[in-house]
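Obj.: predict assembly geometry.
Materials: sequence records (below).
Method: joint structure prediction, all chains together.
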Amino acid sequence: MNLSTIIQGKAYVLGDNIDTDQIIPAQYLTFNPSIPEEYKMFGKYALAGVPPAQGGLPKGHIPLHGPANEFVSPYSIIIAGRNFGCGSSREHAPVALDAAGIKAVVAEFYARIFFRNSVNGGYLIPLESVKRLCETVCTGDELRLDAIAGRLENLTSNETYELKPLGEVAPILEAGGVFPYARAKGLLKA
Amino acid sequence: MTLTEKILARHSGRASVQPGDNIWVDVDVLMTHDVCGPGTIGVFHQNFGRQAKVWDRDKVVIIPDHYIFTADAMANRNVDVLRAFVAEQNLPHFYDVGTERYKGVCHIALPEEGHTRPGEILLGTDSHTCTAGAFGEFATGIGNTDAGFVMGTGKTWLKVPPTLRFVFHGELPPYLMAKDLILAVIGDIGCDGATYMAMEFDGDGVYCLNIEERMTLCNMAIEAGGKNGIIRADQKTVDFVKSRDKSAKPFVVEQSDSDAPFAREWVYDVTKLRPVVAKPHSPDNRAYVDEIQGTPIDRAYIGSCTGGKMTDFRAAARILNGHSVKIDTFVVPATTEIARLLKTERIDGGQTLEEIFLNAGAKIGEASCAACLGGPSDTFGRLNSAIKCISTTNRNFPGRMGHKQAEVFLASPLTVAASALRGSITDPREYLS
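Observations (raw structure tokens):
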């Protein structure tokens, strides 16, 4: 669960209101994320509920997974619009993205339970962009993200985008989640 | 302070709190179920050790309800994980499948079994945990990691939310239900309109509502992104809680101060509203029934935490009584207590509710979450193809009830029942004299 705050990789672009049923449909919630072999399965079904035309914008119909690996995606940063992760409290949602190799999401803003689960579980870095990026960045663009500096560079288009500061969740993310954070702060026995 | 702020302040040992404060609070009740329980238990064991005990046996409530009547081996395995944990921890509040204690949908089981009390903090591993705000408490959904942390410590950190206030005036006309009110609100503010905020429902129009209808209002706070929905406890609440809570724990009834700082306020005259639906694929995609009357529908579904209570079934029965449905119609009681009442409660001394539904041609399933969230492919009522369904459930994102291309319209039990009779979206006023 060591979160790197500098991430380079390919963008996968989605639209608004990507809810937890799209991120991991309910029929796959029977896997238990606390069992490592089953954790992997969430990667396979990550974003399985996104209607094909809305996956991999702007063109759409681009699957998250490449032909080489059915569990881990070639993309590492998701770019999305408003209200990412709305819907249920299932922690399986950030688990699925993590298992699929997604290191960070950059959205306009998040539904609060998804944001909290991402931070407390230390699965990925949920960042907010200052401007809407899901119509600027294209799926497949090469991105370089500095989560602490709040900067996202698009190496394909030579653009730089400003991100909002992580604020009070930064130390929890840097610690790798709420448990390591609480231990480091003496809130829990080591 | 607002009601939500007062509850949070008291549980953090502070005299007062303000929106934006990050605080540690003591939790009164932690609820989990078969979908998130196994992961929560895993987090708990991983972080506190195999031999660790939960912080307070009496405060952990485990209610399997999601994937119950299915042949899916993994789903059944997950209930076994809950059983093993309950045995290991000797937990008293477990409502196991296949026993007399089995209940069904957790959000309805919690109050029925006396686990909801005014002034408390209830956390659950389900986004609709906010339902319990109907009892004047702070209730919200959390993930496995948070729940594992609470299980071991009894504490969690929360950011104090600003409160939005929704004031309803007037008595609800017989063709409207709480579902119409909350769909109207979500239509107004959007499915992200209350993100990170508390939604307090107030006004004479709310206190006219019975407890179940208040639960429907609070249940859907999350569909506007709300952290919690809440209604000040009144005499109806206190009477209900006392009739259900075997522990007779003392509780604190609080209310927002008259000068409480609400972030924003909306005022509704409920007598002027019309029946509402949320069109596919979002709970904020509002239309009035009279605008889309006649839209063909393939299936009707009456069930879930928001639409499977006695008030919901009485309403549906008023419409269905003596008629036949034109489309597949699925009825799913939220809990076993409600399922038993369907067999005994009669409309005007005539048929029981169950007889009315069966005679109308509806199918009745067993108490559980069933097709509200799709689930395994053999789930009762699941949308396994790209059909159109009108449903009393609370969420209609793509794929929510099963098939990715299925279309779900959310509506009140009255509107769903009337639509079942015509096979198209129908205004319930056409069947109510």
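Conclusions so far: The two ends of chain A are 17 Å apart (CA to CA).
To do: check interface contacts against the pulldown list.
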